[in-house]
Design a protein that fits this description.
2 copies of one chain form a homodimer. Chain A has 190 residues and is α+β, with helices and mostly antiparallel strands. Chain A is built from 6 helices and 10 strands. Chain A has a single domain, classed as Trna Endonuclease, Chain: A, domain 1. The interface between A and B is large, with 53 and 52 residues. Strand 3 of chain A pairs antiparallel with strand 3 of chain B, so a sheet runs across the interface.
Amino acid sequence: MRYPKGIKKNYQNNTSHGNRGMVLEHDLNDTNQYYLETKRAVIHKKPTPITINKVNYPSRLEAVITEAHFKTPSTTDYNGVYRAKYIDFEAKETRNTKYFPIANIHIHQQKHLKNIIECGGIGFIIVRFTNLNETFLLKGEDLFQFLNTSTRKSIPIEYFRKKGYLIHIKYAPRLDYLKIIDDLYFKGDK
Amino acid sequence: MRYPKGIKKNYQNNTSHGNRGMVLEHDLNDTNQYYLETKRAVIHKKPTPITINKVNYPSRLEAVITEAHFKTPSTTDYNGVYRAKYIDFEAKETRNTKYFPIANIHIHQQKHLKNIIECGGIGFIIVRFTNLNETFLLKGEDLFQFLNTSTRKSIPIEYFRKKGYLIHIKYAPRLDYLKIIDDLYFKGDK
């Protein structure tokens, strides 16, 4: 994958202030790049939302941000178009082997996914249990079913195994999640 | 419109290093907020893409970006879902009264709009001629027709008047561009 000049990849996509989420994110960026090049879908990760406080202009053409802060995201990280439909998802990794802590999906992002589905869009989450090497796609509808019927602060892995769909890791595309979307939302279409 | 605490609006959405584009952007943000609250559509402006070079951690909970640069955007600024379809557009203002300089839409953004349309999405641009107080929606297809058949570096306002659709300014929603999308892409649907 080629990155534009000057991008320091480790920082570029790092919203979680550490290495958390980086491997899954890299797999998804590769996958989305593959989808783009094969004209299958146009799905991008949104830039990290920040609040800019100070900008310096050392020259007429150059602007340097000298003070900014990370913002709590109001939407999910990934969205785009597939087979004319709107696709929207959030992706998270956890080292936990039994549970996915719901706090990983901000309340604003949950609300956003709900709005998406109400408007006819396809909304889901992708969760990787790093230490088990299992990556699941869970439909937004099934996420909300859990949230609406449980008071637990985390989703057991059994719920993902029962309601979610395992995404197998391949060479290219790395994480072919659109194959699952085909089965779930375009069944019967050619 | 309510902004989250601490956001300095003038910087927040300002990718053009000045006041250019700010009024139209404000109108569109208000409109999109209205669409969201009335559950008509979920359309957001993407965060300004930046490259982060340095981050300080004055405390365990706080991260301050101390050096970052604006990046050339690889996608358009606005996207979302309307009637299950994927919507994508770029919005620009010009003080010019006769022409819209094509350089206002980066080549990457043009390519992005083309990809969107090829994947079945709805792609367009919104251009405001500030000094004439005329705001047009121009379909991506008509933008590309111009680019493919002309060597000019700007689009005459006549082209917008002939091929584009005038968006009237109202109270709420401020700029009801989805009304035009209804006519253009959902004709005959209820």
